[in-house]
Amino acid sequence: MAVFSDRLGIYRLPQHKYVDAVRWLPLLSAFDRFAVLALFDSDSDSYSIEIHSFKPNPLPLQPQYSWVSPSRISSLKASQFLQKTIIAASTFSGSLHVLFSDSTDASLESEISIPEGALHSVPVSCIDLMDSGGECVTVGEDGKVNLVSIGNSNLNYRRLFDSSGLVSYTAAKWASPVEFATGGYGFSLQWWDQRKPGGPVSQFKGDWGQKLTSGIVHSIDIHPSRKHTCLAGGSLGTVFAWDLRWQKQPITLSGAGAGAGNTAVQSISESEVWEVQYDRCMKSNTSSTHILPSMICSEDGILAVIEQGEEPIELLAEPCAINSFDIDRHNPSDVICSLEWEAVAILTRQ
Asked: Where would you find the membrane-spanning parts of this chain (predicted)?
């Protein structure tokens, strides 16, 4: 395993609250950088979303604005929409909240929401915002898949699918304005196309050779230039890619199944992979059949870069879980991640 240390700057910032999720906000200007944190204060049993400014000197993160949530945040996303920055947050009580932030100073202007029980009868497992920010997909372990349209002052939603609990969904990711992927138990993945209603248009069940029927997909990513390939991370340190052009066999990148006839695959973690994202900072083979480099964070405290056929690169090895991370879309050398021991870490790669 390679260790990326010589050209890596690391800031570890105590928060004194449990950090459930972190996201970079879309770039407002060349000099103003902001991140949004979903926080849980166990002392006061309170939940909040805070916007912090990112300034390397004198302090890397400075809290600017805060919003109190009625419940603990289960999923957090940010995007640009209607010349505004929007922050979408789902909760363990089943509600969805959309915050509008000023495009110049990131101050919070307004909030619209869908109350608990309307979208899901259980905690919302995952949400994802379309790149334009105009639509949000929500999924839950109750088997419901919802599409939420975001307006200036209201949220309209419709139920795209309801499995009545026969299938549980734990992850979701947009691929295009009409397509998205979901993931769930048994390392399963589903591909949806709104032009073809009635259910997923394609499905993958992860029972390849290892009887992997109990694992869970925790995170999905889809590269904008290769929407036919779905990247997934989940239980047992598993990271794999599902190519819609060759659907029957997954491409294992790490974790469960890595040793099954593929000695070139090295596992970076053996625990839950909480998040996976394509790493646009890393240069790679441009072949359409080659899986682009990805970054993962895990329950056993690993933040690493994985590339097909290459030795994994370890960026962080913490004594606690790394629950989430985000790569800055405008400056992909910068990464922010949340540590289970009530802290945020910011990495700057040269």
From this structure: none
Give the count of alpha carbons within 13 A of 107, CB side only: 3
Which DSSP state fits 143?
S
Q: What percent of the chain has pLDDT over 70?
A: 88
Give the span between the Cα atoms of 33 and 27, in whole angstroms: 6
DSSP string, 74-133: EEEEEEEETTEEEEEEEETTS-EEEEEE-TTT--EEEEEEE-TTTS-SS-EEEEEE-TTS
Identify the CA nearest to 193 among candidates 220, 149, 223, 227: 227
Apex 108 CA angle, 103 and 114, nearest 5 = 110
The pTM of the full predicted model, rounded to 2 decimals, is 0.91
Neighbouring-strand partners of residue 193: 179
Q: In this structure, what DSSP letter does residue 291 have?
A: P
Checking phi first, is residue 16 left (phi over 0); if not, alpha (psi -120 to 50) or beta? left
Map residue 237 onto helix, strand or coil.
Answer: helix
Query: Taking a C-beta distance cutoff of 8 angstroms, is the pair 92, 65 a contact?
Result: no
Average pLDDT, the chain: 88
Cite the beta strand spans of 217-342 per DSSP E: 217-222, 229-234, 239-243, 246-254, 273-278, 294-298, 302-306, 313-317, 322-327, 334-339
Which residue bears the tokens 């939940």? 47
For residue 171, list its beta bridge partners. 183
Rounded percentage of the chain residues whose pLDDT exceeds 90? 61
DSSP string, 311-335: --EEEEE-SS-EEEEEE-SSSTTEE
**Bridge partners, 161 (sequence order):** 145
Joined together, the tokens standing for residue 40 give 């849980």
